[in-house]
Write a structure and sequence with these properties.
By secondary structure, the chain is α+β, with helices and mostly antiparallel strands. It has 20 helices and 20 strands. It has a four-stranded antiparallel β-sheet, with helices on one face. Strands 8-9-7-10 form a four-stranded antiparallel β-sheet, covered by helices on one side.
């Protein structure tokens, strides 16, 4: 119900009700004998007076008043009297009615007197300075009206009949001395748009072990807020409940509420396979996936709503792109999990993945794991033929050197049927180990571990401590995505959502890429581009959450290079991370290449040493710009850092064919820009 100034507590005694009934009947010229109907009329009058503004019975918007009637109506609480002056034939004063009215107004006057005393004193001084009469307990408009009434007590009174349909006498208004003529001066609270109170970052249901302690900035200020308030406000907006945000179901800003377990994917390629689609899902156990090729859409249902929310948020933030198509993200209709599936998950840990062991994948080696070498050698085609009778199969992985297979169905229900019946239906599987494996969509990637470690301030190398804590990782990634989305959209607009490129301006003259990278912390880099002639640099991160975190921390604490503070902003939208790079990063790729097992002593004796900075630069810059080369002579290794991760991926693939590097250990190293920010 909308707040109305008329919705105040009313006295409930019978005396008051009867008093209102007599007043009502008296004003209509009715006799006092019809007390029953008058009492009902009094009750009806109070209900209308308490009607919320904006509904069908509004005492402000639905009633019209005439100037002549206003001049002949005056309320006053001075001396605890309620005087209604009307010049109408047949009206009489009743002492009992006046006493009841007096008691009622005393009750109301006591309720409002304390709140209006100070305001009335100020108004009295103003009216005394203007030479106008003033009575305590009356509004300025009524003071002037009373002054005119005393001067012309009978003006405009003849021929006018007081009608209840045109006037509502509210006892709430009696103590304020306010008449209907003053209603236009009121600014009703129900006519204002109330702002929700600012929320702290700790208001989210997904709490970080290290929550931000600052409180959101007040939105009333028009001047540019500080960086501290900006960061807090962004986080607060991200954690704001869905009920406080515009939109209900597909709100891209809401990363904290999942209305369903099912995520809708639109504009997908009509020829996409289940395996290709689920290659993009890495947030939790999938209960079922359906592809509708004719409608170019799919529905991915998770077992847990939090996993669905994480996938939904991640897909929006990173702008999910499949085969060059921007995927539309939404929510499917909420539906409960099938009771059979729920029981299988609770009792047996059922998943879409069916594990089959003791398979004959190699006649020469199968005896090592207890398989019968006389059996037919199993293949993917044989597994597909045998198990497809239980439902649609998404993927099959056969590990030949271990004699095991993992068969992923498109639903948990199909997997439950396969585990329960395959041994009895097909004798070949009667002596095999058949149970549930881990859903491949629920594996925690190194990128996810790294992002959580960055957000929680965990030092590098300690990510394994939370490897099995799926709930912590899921909740932390949700909070990180929510904050990143709020920061990106609030600072750069709605189209900036998912941007991974940060602009650095006001750079020192002749600054080097190495010096800039030494100052960047908080996320793996895809590319860094320096424009020395313009003294600007564009830094593109792998993950948009890392870009948003770096932007926020740099705005909060500042970024200084050579004792010169840099300007921070957003660059041109980077678009989604290319799929090939995303796949390489999930397998440990970075822009840093590690070269190990180097014999620096023997190399130094050569006429043209290879493992020097100049020589290595000339070799590796064939693949792209080299940002830094770092030698660790005591560990017989070195690190080559490229400006672009694509160049590093290409180099590590090609350099192995170089005879100078054939005996070396070559792998990806850690990007130092991904270390924990120094501010934390």
């Amino acid at each position: 119900m909308t707040y109305s100034p008329f919705s105040q507590p009313q006295p409930s005694s019978q005396g008051h009700e009867a008093g209102h009934g007599h007043v009502h009947g008296h004003l209509h010229g009715q006799s006092s004998s019809s007390s029953g109907s008058n009492a009902n009329g009094g009750l009806e009058m109070r209900q209308m007076a308490a009607s919320p503004v904006g509904e069908s019975l509004s005492p402000v918007s639905d009633l019209s008043y005439q100037a002549s009637s206003r001049q002949n109506t005056m309320w006053s609480d001075q001396g605890s009297q309620w005087e209604v002056q009307q010049q109408h034939p047949g009206q009489h004063n009743h002492q009992n009615q006046q006493q009841q009215q007096q008691q009622h107004l005393q009750y109301q006057h006591h309720h409002h007197h304390h709140q209006q005393q100070q305001q009335q004193q100020q108004q009295g001084l103003q009216y005394q300075q203007q030479g106008l009469p003033y009575q305590q307990g009356m509004q300025p408009g009524m003071q002037y009206q009373q002054h005119q009434q005393h001067q012309h007590p009978h003006q405009g009174s003849q021929g006018h009949q007081f009608s209840f349909s045109n006037h509502i006498i509210s006892p709430v208004m009696g103590s304020t001395g306010m008449g209907m003529s003053d209603m236009s001066l009121i600014r009703l609270p129900s006519q204002e748009y109330m702002e929700y109170p600012p929320l702290s970052s700790g208001s989210s249901e997904f709490l970080s072990p290290r929550p931000i302690s600052v409180v959101a900035a007040q939105p009333e200020r028009e001047e540019k807020p500080s960086s501290v308030n900006l960061l807090a406000q962004f986080t607060a907006e991200a954690n704001m409940p869905l009920s406080l945000q515009s939109g209900q179901l597909n709100n891209p800003r809401d990363f904290t509420t999942a209305p369903s377990r099912t995520v809708y994917l639109g504009n997908i390629p009509s020829t996409i396979t289940y395996k290709a689609l689920l290659d993009y899902v890495r947030t939790g156990v999938v209960e079922e996936v359906k592809i509708l090729p004719e409608k170019m859409c799919a529905f991915v249902s998770f077992v847990d709503e939090n996993d669905a929310l994480l996938f939904h948020s991640d897909a929006i933030l990173k702008r999910l792109n499949i085969d060059g198509r921007d995927i539309k993200i939404g929510w499917g209709k909420p539906q409960p999990i099938d009771p059979i599936v729920r029981a299988g998950i609770s009792n047996d840990g059922a998943t879409r993945n069916v594990y089959i062991g003791k398979l004959n994948t190699n006649k020469d080696l199968c005896e090592k794991w207890g398989a019968d070498p006389k059996e037919v050698v199993i293949t993917k085609e044989k597994l597909l033929e045998d198990l497809s009778q239980f439902g649609e199969i998404e993927s099959i992985k056969l590990v030949e050197d271990r004699g095991i297979a993992f068969v992923h169905f498109t639903s948990v229900f199909s997997a439950i049927k396969a585990v329960a019946n395959i041994g009895s239906i097909d004798p070949y599987y009667s002596n095999k180990k058949v149970f549930y494996g881990k859903d491949r969509c629920a594996f925690i990637t190194k990128t996810q571990q790294h992002n959580v470690a960055q957000f929680l301030g965990i030092q590098p190398g300690m990510e394994a401590l939370m490897e099995n804590n799926r709930e912590l990782i899921s909740q932390t990634l949700l909070q990180q995505s929510a904050a990143a989305a709020a920061i990106a959209t609030s600072a750069g607009g709605a189209n900036n959502l998912g941007n991974r490129t940060v602009y650095l301006g006001n750079l020192p003259k002749n600054v080097k890429l190495e010096e800039i990278c030494n100052a960047i912390r908080g996320g793996l880099l895809q590319n860094i581009k320096l424009l020395n002639d313009r003294h600007v640099c564009f830094v593109t991160f792998i993950d948009p959450t890392a870009a948003a975190q770096f932007y926020a921390m740099s705005s909060l604490h500042g970024l200084t290079i050579h004792n010169k503070r840099c300007k921070i902003g957003w660059g041109k939208h980077s678009g989604p991370l290319p799929n090939l790079i995303a796949l390489a990063v999930s397998r440990g790729a970075s822009r840093n290449i590690y070269l190990g097992n180097i014999n620096f002593e023997e190399d130094s004796k050569l006429e043209e040493p290879i493992f020097t900075e100049d020589a290595l630069r000339s070799i590796f810059e064939e693949f792209g710009t080299v940002e830094q080369i770092n030698f660790l002579y005591e560990k017989n290794c070195c690190f080559i850092n490229f400006a672009n991760i694509s160049n590093a991926i290409l180099a590590i693939d090609k350099i192995k064919s170089n005879p100078h590097f054939k005996n070396l250990k070559i792998n990806f190293g850690k990007d130092r820009c991904g270390n924990v920010p120094r501010q934390l």
